[in-house]
Specification:
Layout (H helix, E strand, L loop, with lengths): L18 H14 L12 H10 L5 H14 L3 H7 L1 H7 L6 H18 L8 H5 L6 H10 L10 H10 L7 H11 L5 H14 L26
Helix pairs in contact: 2-8, 4-6, 5-6, 9-10, 9-11
């Protein structure tokens, strides 16, 4: 009788971060980037909202190339609604999915005028009810424009949360919820920016720059680049 091969052992899950380690993690990121902020250009909460809507499946650099002309023509919901979908599309045509985004920007501008007194609301439910605005976009606006300690999980933060072991999760919402629990209160306002910038410039998707990583000694990633 042929002996059955032994079952392959599943690799052990990385050891969860302790509160002390989470404190050290964010303290290191804060020291590395003392003044974190969005890289999207904007002038007020409304233009930030529009810029974030335009940034879906696009880069901040690409959005920043298109928005100066757009915001010069319309920097309020009233002006944007008057500009109209066709003109908005013409001004943002260098951005991916520009037709759908132009439709959403025109529609959300009309809603802001009709229902919110021409102001970007600072309530999550009101933001998420706007065309083209999901949880991530609402979190960015709440954090950047209104100072709320929200964490918007994009592809960069999702990768950092999972790769480092700080907040592993199968969905952006799961990662967000774990980050909410593990992030020390004093770092919550800047956590979104520290994590996204770390993912964009250091903990990159294809080849993380581990030698330059401020949290290398805490990271649970087993295949660190650079030895």
């Amino acid at each position: 009788m042929t002996a059955r091969p032994p079952k392959a052992r599943k690799s052990a899950a990385p050891k969860p971060f302790t509160a002390v380690e989470a404190e050290r993690f964010f303290a290191a990121l804060a020291q590395d980037r003392p003044d974190p902020r969005t890289e999207l250009d904007y002038a007020n909460p409304f233009t930030l909202l529009v810029a974030v809507v335009l940034s879906a499946q696009a880069t901040d650099v690409g959005v920043n190339k298109a928005t100066p002309a757009l915001f010069a023509a319309a920097d309020t919901p009233e002006k944007m609604a008057a500009l109209g979908e066709a003109r908005i599309a013409e001004l943002i045509k260098t951005i991916g999915l520009y037709r759908t985004k132009a439709k959403n920007v025109a529609a959300l501008s009309r809603i802001l005028v009709e229902r919110h007194g021409g102001q970007a609301p600072r309530e999550r439910a009101a933001l998420e009810a706007l065309p083209g605005v999901g949880r991530k976009t609402a979190n960015v606006v709440l954090n950047e424009a209104f100072g709320e300690p929200t964490i918007a999980v994009d592809t960069h933060i999702f990768r950092v949360g999972n790769r480092t072991g700080l907040a592993p999760g199968k969905t952006p919402l799961e990662v967000e919820q774990k980050l909410e629990r593990i992030t020390p209160a004093r770092f919550k306002k800047g956590a979104h920016h520290w994590l996204i910038l770390h993912g964009r410039y250091v903990c990159k998707a294809r080849r993380p720059d581990c030698p330059a990583c401020a949290v290398r000694d805490l990271c649970r990633y087993g295949a660190k680049e650079g030895g």
